Amino acid sequence: MTEKIDIVEMFLRDKLKEKEILRILEVPETHLNLYADKFGGRQILEKRYVVVRPKSASDVAKIFEVVKNFDYSVIPVGGATGALVSGGILPTKNKVVFIDTRSMNKILRFDPDSQTVTVQAGVKIAKLQAFLKVRGYWTPILPGSFRQATIGGAVCTNAISPFSTKYGRATSIVTALQIVFPNGKITEIGNKTSFDNSIMLKDFFLSSEGRLGILTEVTLKVYPFPESRKVAMFGFKNINSAISTIIELRNFGIQPETLMILEKERVIYEALQNVSLNSELNYAIFIFVSYSGSKGFVASLLNHTISLVKKRKGVKLPDKIAKNYWKNLTKGYALPMMRDVSNEELRVANLRYNSVRIGIPLHKLPIFLSYERKIRAKLDMLVYVGTSSYILLPQADSLCVSGCLIDDSSKIAVEQFKTWERKLLQKAKRIGGSLCAATGLGSMYNEFAVTEFGDSLESFNLIKRTLDPWKILK
After folding, report:
1. What predicted TM-score, i.e. pTM, was given to this entire model?
2. Per the record, a Pfam family (predicted)?
């Protein structure tokens, strides 16, 4: 094993610079500290692998040229923030070359006329946001891990963000891409508009999670900063009233940029810093909204929303609660209570966070949450922190992020989490949903691949064999 790694390294060093070859994959410390390890990912990541940090598409082509002569797989890495969430970068065998894209970190072109920016795939989302901000623009790609996540990783997993209600998921604003295939060919797809006449190849490759080629450049639509942005949170006695309010908003043609349904636990954990508990928290379900645009337009939308909420006997919560939640939602904290590593209760209990992320039709959300409560009642080692549901309009689809704190050093606790996760995934599929709605399939969900894709898995494998006959890509 060691000898063969040395041979692969030797050939790679002949093609690339010495400093671009590593032996340890870098995973953000905050990610390792925050997330519970469901599948032994930390142990896998501690092993020594061949890790290559190319700086261009031509470097990636050189890597393929070497690797296809050996019985090795290639796994592309963005910010490595999904390692313990979906296992998207976790290898299932030892003979692996990681292509760590974080050295492809240049912002290449900004074109305000077409409202696009072209970046290398390894550019961190936080870096791009800072670049755009000083120019009066922004991008709605903002997953919870945006401080460490890369643009390439976000679009290859079709990440969701608070702004997906209005702007869609990450791939919705991608207009062009550059991809390197296993045969070394560098291909450009798309243009600077949203019109893609290349039989939707752009979307096909963006959603393949690096299984068909390595993404090296991305062109995105960007938007001018709005004049005004307002947020609000509303409480309801039951989820059906909340859903009816959302459907009425849609039918009136009101388009929030952010729309979420939150269980009480999420509000407690993520919105109540420096806010005393009061009667508003007697409500079971909450809606969070944000609107942006001109001041008068935003005020009008918010007033209309308040009227619809009152019609369903909902109540507007104090602004401080909504602003606290918005701050935590857009600052990249999975749970505010876990930001403070000195939190004694969590440290002693050795609790870490993880979640199940599932896409379902909005009108099925009451069924899903009721089922979740039923099975969780039998699992005594999980600390439930609630479900937050990102709502996409006008489609009326819901991405449910159901979270727990667990002691991942306890085999019993981990098995309980996996049981809870498995049952939720299976229920989602039975009610017309998707098992892996926000972080990709990943190695942790391999057992569900046939369930998720059905007969289409055969078609995908046929395409993969055509593009990757060497079986290089994961």
Report:
1. 0.91
2. FAD_binding_4
Tokens at residue 398, please? Answer: 């819901």
Cα 306 to Cα 288: distance, rounded to the nearest angstrom: 12
pLDDT in tens, the chain (474 residues): 454 556 777 778 777 876 677 778 888 887 888 888 887 888 888 887 889 999 999 999 999 999 988 888 899 999 888 777 776 777 777 788 999 999 999 999 999 999 999 999 999 999 999 999 999 999 999 888 888 899 999 998 888 899 999 999 988 999 999 999 999 999 999 888 878 766 678 888 887 888 899 999 999 999 999 999 999 999 999 999 999 999 999 999 999 999 999 999 999 888 876 666 555 578 999 999 999 999 999 999 999 999 999 999 999 999 999 999 999 888 865 555 555 444 555 554 688 898 888 999 999 999 999 999 999 999 999 999 999 999 999 999 999 999 999 999 999 999 999 999 889 988 998 999 987 666 666 666 677 777 777 788 888 889 999 999 998 987
